[in-house]
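Example record for the data management plan.
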Amino acid sequence: MSLIRKIYNLFYLKNEAWKSENELVELQNNKLRSMIDYACINIPYYKEIYKSLQLDKYPVLTVRDLERLPIITKKDIQKRPEDFVRPGVDISQCLEMHTSGSTGMPLKIYYGEKDDDFSKVNNLRSFIEAGYKWGDSFVTISDPDWVAKRYHKRSSVGLQQRLNIFNPIDVNMRNSPSQIVDDILKIGKCDVLYGYPTNIFLVAKEVERRGNKIIKPRIVVTNGELLEPRMRECINNIFDTKLYDFYTTEEFKRIAWECEQHDGYHIDMESVVLEFVKDGKQVPKGERGEIIITSLYNYTMPLIRYRQGDIGIESTDVCACGRGLKLMKALEGRTDNFIINKKNELFSPQIFWSIFRHYFSMKKYQILQDSIGCINVLYCKNHESNSLERDIQEIEKKIKESLGYEMNIDFEEIENFSPGKRKSVFSKLKPSLY
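Corresponding structural encoding:
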């Protein structure tokens, strides 16, 4: 059933993208009303919070009406996590996603089988629009602790692998750039290269250092962190391509993506609502606003008006590609720093995210580097956990497995971090990148 559902969803999403914006807005509003009605009846948190809003008399009919609902944060969910999940759901049978602990304690997000099927196909659509073809060798630079957990327990992944349909070949993102290149070369073919911008940038620089086109991906896709213009230019020049950047989070999976025009990010209007908000009000197109997101398909754990922490601008333009999906013109966020080990090798800051998101004994963390081969880990303890000592030992082991066992690592507990946006990986060293 899962495979049939995925095929149906793929055809559905492929066709929907080419409808007019007005048609897609109507579709989005219909899905939004269904999600709100469902949450009011089935999800404990929303049943309680929305009771005073009299939604039976004054229902949410359009995206504009969302302003009447409260914005939720990661802290709200962490206080009452069970109240955001549909009662009766066996979470052991759900796909479990983890956010990072850089801006707060890692958060667990649950997807049921149907939710995950839709998410996987929504993800596939963006790759097909970027040029992915059946049979392509799809290499992803990924978190090794997540590889075995990326699929729902009932997913038809075995058939996907046998048919080589959107079947990722994983390379450990925590390895050195030189080792990652060697790992890709062992695969023998790389048609699609997918990963975090900083990882792919370091791989590109290593390919350039070796002096030949040993890796020649037809398609390069980045996601998960802010892509700097100079980094994009460097990757494009080395791989002789025009990379596609996607907007993705653990809470909502794929949110928006670049098409062949590379002139903004198409918002997945069938799966999410994006509000751009300032002082509690939605701003007009073309104005900068905080991004607030509502899921339209995850009925296992609905997130309605969730503060993502990013800043963006909804474009006033219509994409020349002809798709009706709205465009997000710009995305702002923090840019973390690269780390240098004692061998003078550069490492992506994302390796720390890939490690810390699996541990819940720390509410927040920050990595500081003042000198080559040394890092300081600042963290706030989660007092509800009793596994801190064990977690620190495991985290230190994993960091040293990546950066080298000669790396000096100091852990320092602090009461709290200053409020507001901050880098999760900060280095005073300024290596030459370009």
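Summary line stored alongside the record: Residues 44 and 83 are 5 Å apart (CA to CA).
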